[in-house]
Structure formats: C-alpha cells, structure tokens
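Handout, section B. The chain below has 235 residues.
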Amino acid sequence: MAPPVVVALGGSLLHPDEDERHVWLQEICAIISDYVQSGSRIGLVIGGGAPAREAISLAKPLVTDVSALDEVGIAATRLNATVVSQALIAAGLDVCPGIPSDVVSAARALSHHQIVVMGGTSPGHTTDNVAIRLAIEANADICIVATNVDKVYEKDPRQFEDARPIDSMTLSDLQQIVGPPVHGKAGSSGVIDPIGVQAAIDHDLPLAVLDGRETARLESALTGSPFEGTSIRVG
C-alpha cells in the first residue's frame, strides 16, 4: 500500500467570499475524488479560521485559561471538518465516518479508508501541528499546508512590503523564520506552527506551503507536479 498524503486546509479557506466558497468546496471535492481514483489515500486536517477566532474572542473576557480557549478553537475546527467530510461523503467517496479526535485513530482509519478528515485534537496543538503529526503517524511522504498565503516569506509580508517569497528551502531554514517550538496564544496564526516544524525536523518529513484558494496549485502538489508555492525539503 502506497503511503498517504496529508493536507492541512486552513480554516480561512472555508470562508472566502460568500459567492465563491461553494465553488471552492466543489473544486476541492473534485480534486480529491480524482486523486483517490487510483487507490491513493489522503488525510485532511481542517483549521478553524474565522469561526474559531470569533468564538475565542467572545470567550476571552470570561475565560483566561489558554487551554480552555484552545478547546473553543478546537470545537470550531471539528465543525469545519464535519462540513468537508459530509461534502466528500455526498460525492460518493470512501470517507472515514466521524471526525477522529487524535492522530493515532486517524492514522489507523487511513488504513481502512481512502479519506480521513479531522480537526484539532488537544490544547497546544494547532491544526498545522496536527497535520504534521498525522503525516508522521501515518508514514506519509509529505505534508502539504494549504493556507491563504502563496508562499513562505523571509518575513511577514503583512508587515513588511519588501518581504521576499521563497520557492525552495530546508526545514532548518523554515525554523529560522518561524522560531522556536513554543505554543502561541489561542487564535493566533502563522505560516506554519513552530512546534509542527520541529516535529517535521525530528522525523525528516518534507513539507509544502501553497495558496489553497488556488485549487489548481493543490492539485499539482498532490500529483507530484511542479506547483506554485514553497517546497520545504529535509535538511
């Protein structure tokens, strides 16, 4: 059995412009359907996006414990995962029923189903981190991080107009950008969770970062074709 691929789909991708989000989800379902036709397997880890941030913002004045706020965000990721899972099931695909709550269960399900969809797992673990850990547990060849930025940048392009995009880099290079493996505040976001980056380094797991709003880029990365984004090799 060929190794699976794991994809982290940022929660922001599920909530683009109101007129486009249904088209985006249909395209994602079609891409995954084509990908699994040959017997390939895929694990999808869905982020919380705006619903998670809004829920955490609502809770913050009353809840000061970071772990408790993380639980709020995790609930949003699982709701988003349910949306994606049900859309794939409706397309007639072999999807693991339910939303696994840990990577061990999800990896086990990938040995029985072509598609597994999950969200967050426990406080302190972003969905990027979860996706990387699922890829490690399932012996995947690569973890693809599909988000709302086109590439990894040498510095935050939202703050620095001269930020330079990077086409290819090593995991060590990436760690220099994202910083040490520490947990950030609930609801925060970065190109890739630094704790997940450390796990990828520890287990020699290649990564890829691309703009998931451009679904053709994800399709290219899944099929091993050249893609617009950042390829992150071991080293």
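Note. Residues 185-189 have pLDDT under 50 and may be disordered. Compare this with the example in section A.
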